Amino acid sequence: MEGTLIALIGNPNVGKTTIFNALTGLKQHVGNWPGVTVEKKEGEFEHGGKKFHVVDLPGVYALTAYSIDEKIARDFIVREKPDLVVDIVDASNLQRNLYLTLQLLEIGANVVVALNKMDLAKEKGYKIDPKKLEDALGVPVVPMVAAEGKGIEELKAKIVEALERKPRPVEYPNFEAYTERLTRVIERDEELSRRYNPRWLAIKLLEGDDEAKGIVEESRTRDDILRELIEVSEELHKKYGDVELALADERYGVIGEIVKKAIVKKEERMTFSDMLDEVFTHKYLGIPIFISLMWVVFKFTFDVSAPFSDIIDWFFGWLGDAVGTHVANDALASLLRDGIIAGLGSVLVFLPPIAFLFLAFSWLEDSGYMARAAFVMDRVMHRFGLHGKSVIPMIMGFGCNVPAIMATRTLEDEKDRLLTILVNPLMSCPARLPIYAVFAGAFFAGREGTVITSMYLLGIALALVIAWLFRKLLFKGEPSYFIMELPPYNRPNWRVILGTTWTRTEKFLKKAGTVIFAGVVVVWLLSVTGPSGYLGSEALENGAVLAKSWVAALGHALQPLFSPMGWDWRGAVALFFGFIAKEVVVGTLGVLYGVGDDVHAVSNAIAASGTFNPVTAYAFMAFSLIYVPCVATIAVIKQEAGWKWALFAVVYEIILAYIVALAIVGIGGVL
User: What's the rounded mean pLDDT across residues 39-66?
Assistant: First the structure.
């Protein structure tokens, strides 16, 4: 890592991403913080002949280390000791944002305050004097409207200037004597004082911070520090009661004095955001509006992306045929055409819908609407043991389970996050739609729409029931309290939206795409080989030849498991292929029935085969809905939650799919 280390920090929705992108441009990369799956963004910029390395810390309200994001932010500032911390403050909500600022000053960080959203502050009737705020805090303050590019160059200049100054410690009058006593004892330990700011450590000990206590427990002067801590804490408790609450009140008292000096004019007025919230968060209109917007998102996503996906599909089909024509060796031609090229195509054909879905959701996020969606859905989700914020990943699951599971990172509580990850695959993604279309067309002519809709409703119902069950059995306790700021509505910044869309899409291609590609190549190998050796590429076009392959042998081995549902080995093979990706199921059935991958031809062939009837067909649809969506989903569950929960998801989904399908056949037989 080269250059001066700069950390960007701020509350959620203060424009941190906009400022990060404006500072670093395209010189940035995304990874994960060590040991966790929270996204880590880093970038570089140069100014005044100096090179700066910027780390974008998670959006947090405080440095209390209660959530993963807070722990990451605090650990980075305390342990990595960045040369400068840029604290991005929402000028329209100054009092709440300054709580984090004071905690940064407690640590002893060298801080520059980026006073963003000055336009919104003005709209709310606030007139803020940046110079008075600077004098009150003792740190440089840069007024900004980052969404319009205002203040970026001034911020760069102030960063260079601030490197030469020393931070001024924040003082709490009612606690100063007690803090000083404990600080003096801590300073006797040179090693401890070198690693941590003694004054910050004293304040955290008085707050009862567990991590601070753990740090002291490992020090050589542990007994002296803990003895002084007990004495000081007892005195404070007698005087103020709960010391942690008293310290919080002291901070807000200091903030109140700062705000009085900085805000020279205040006129309370109803803003445009307030008026929109009267509609979007309405008791009765909120949920219908949310559902309507989600319909528009999916309509936009798949209508716009379909032509691009068709072009990609055509191109890789043409490329595969061209390679097959010019390569004489059948095995090599099949490997290139049906394995490698088909594998790449199966990955890239997902790119347009994924990118447009990310684009739509990034637009809604940047506008400020997504916070309202979580707010209006909280009551419904809470009844089934889910957190209000779970609704966004759940809805995204209708577009693709992979980015939906990645979106659970917004959930602070680990139990809420794991529960949402485990039930998300029950949301029916578009890859399952061709399966519904084939069987609904074959056995429910004239009622296809109703039958297909019932699949989506079944997935939602099962997700809620399973969430309730898992909450009772695996994640006992109520969902965490849903306290969420409703940020003002913004005019979406297309630079931010496109940057976010690209970052998320690139990550999808790297993480999920490699798994799909590898999976398709493995399936090809199992399809063109069997106990007798290499079967030739004809196996992918001729059902009789494919029946001699390893994958057909697997289908026959699995058939006894599916016999109670009335499915033959071809259904088992199709479901096996579907484990890799649901898009393969219809194509597999087409090959096995000798009609290709045309949906209508497959539908007619299945109807004429006599293998299925309306009940067993509906059970097959339900099984396809419930069991593992694809290997990419399992890969992303492993990435977000670890192998234990990924394997648990596979097992429970297969068992649930089997139970539901068997129940449908049983009930259908009686009726």
Answer: 84
Report the candidate in 124, 126, 93, 130 with the shortest Cα–Cα distance to residue 15.
93
Structure tokens at 471: 């909450």
Question: Which of helix, strand or coil describes residue 30?
Answer: strand
Helices (H), 145-209: 152-162, 176-187, 190-195, 198-207
Neighbours of 243 (CB within 10 A): 20
Residue 635: C-alpha distances to residues 77, 356, 402, 650 (Å):
32, 22, 9, 11
**For residue 42, which phi and psi values (nearest 5 degrees)?**
-135, 155
* Cα 101 to Cα 152: distance, rounded to the nearest angstrom: 20
Q: In degrees to the nearest 10, what's the CA dihedral of 513, 516, 519, 521?
A: -70
Read off the pLDDT of residues 369-385 as tens digits, 9 standing for 90 and up.
877 877 787 777 778 88
Q: What angle do CA 513, 515, 518 make, to 5 degrees?
A: 110
d(CA 575, CA 335): 23
CA–CA separation, 352 vs 414, rounded Å?
Answer: 32
Quote the CA–CA distance of 516 and 138 in Å, as a whole number.
54
| Structure confidence by residue, pLDDT tens digits, 158-192 | 999 888 887 788 888 888 899 999 999 999 988 88
pLDDT in tens, 518-554: 666 777 788 788 888 888 877 766 768 878 888 888 8
